[in-house]
Design a protein that fits this description.
By secondary structure, this protein is α+β, with helices and mostly antiparallel strands. The chain folds into 3 domains: 107 residues, no CATH class; 95 residues, Phage tail protein beta-alpha-beta fold (3-Layer(bab) Sandwich); 193 residues, Sandwich (Jelly Rolls). The chain has a 19-stranded mixed sheet that branches. Strands 21-24-23 form a 3-stranded mixed sheet, covered by helices on one side. α1 crosses α3. The longest helix has 16 residues. The relative contact order is 0.12.
Length: 402
Amino acid sequence: MNPISPERVKYLAAQYANNTCTRSELNELVAYAGTEGAEEELQRVLQEHWNTLQPEAPLLPVDWEEMYERITATENSVVHFPSPIPMYKRRWWAVAALLLLAAGGTWLWMNNRPTDRGHHTLAVQLATPGHSGAVLTLADGTQVVLDSAANGNVAQQANVRVMKKNGQLIYEKEGEQAAASDKPLLNTLSTPRGRHYQLVLPDGTIAWLNAASSIQYPAVFAGKDRRVAITGEVYFEVAARAEAPFIVTTPKQEIIVLGTGFNINAYTNEAVERTTLLSGRVKVTAQENSVVADSKVLQPGQQATFHTGGRLQVQEVQADQYIAWVKNLFWFNHATVPDVMRQLERWYDIEVTYEGTVPQHDFGGKLERSLPLADVLQLLEKSGVYCKVEGRRVTVLSGKQH
């Protein structure tokens, strides 16, 4: 590309930081960030913009090197490097993103429209991000806290060994003698708020549980189907067994599959239940008071939504967005403040309340779930959403407090 002047770089950076740049201006700035020699000028211009911000209360210090390491430590980072940019240039794509983040947080929050910028001081001690952990409840009511359990055998159910291996719970048959009893041995795996876990079911199906979720299943699958019940959010990769369909029940739906990858969001504090299909084929049946209300068959890339009193709605979606949590990402798309805060509440194990009118914002973008809550709340503040923190309670304010 042709070289651009420092004045042009400054203009583009200001347009981006103020969330007023056009698509062509954004493309121009991103292209410039990938050129050799852009490092010094980008850092100078964006740091200059950062220094012009005059918050009435001090913001939390940001360790940019640590945040850079978070971003570049995983292929699922918030910064996506377009090919064929050489490796030596890629670091500055990440750095440019961080500097743009410092200039206003718009890299992650592309669609916000702050209406009332006010005063807010973040508390020093905040909740930490969620991590691997769950509670296993056996058929006899015995509970095993998997957070503290060592790797190896954690329980025996009939002729099935229940094992913990590096953050994963696995059911393994002992030879060919494992068989279902007259009364199935039902186990339940539950994740509290602030926890997630991975489970390998007796048939080899893998289930990922998001925070505040549960799955009930037999220690041995037998009969003509494989049936489990869930609450919260679970992503499945189902082991194919044509002779025994895999069936998932939620408080409002029944999903029948033969072999597929799909995500179910069935939190009780969400307005709708969502079933998103990534591969294969599923049949979604909505139920009200044990009566079938509607039924749809999904194709890959489709999502079925259902709310009480309505009908199943099917739409094409970017399915990867709905399993971003499996890759340790938040992915917001036209999300409201309550949408965002419900996810934060479950992941950071906090209580969210509202004081006055709920701010009207439209958030979009990806955010690593490994970020401390303090960093996330600081991003919200930069976008015009102010919070008061008292212990584990986060109160969303209607505006800046003076």
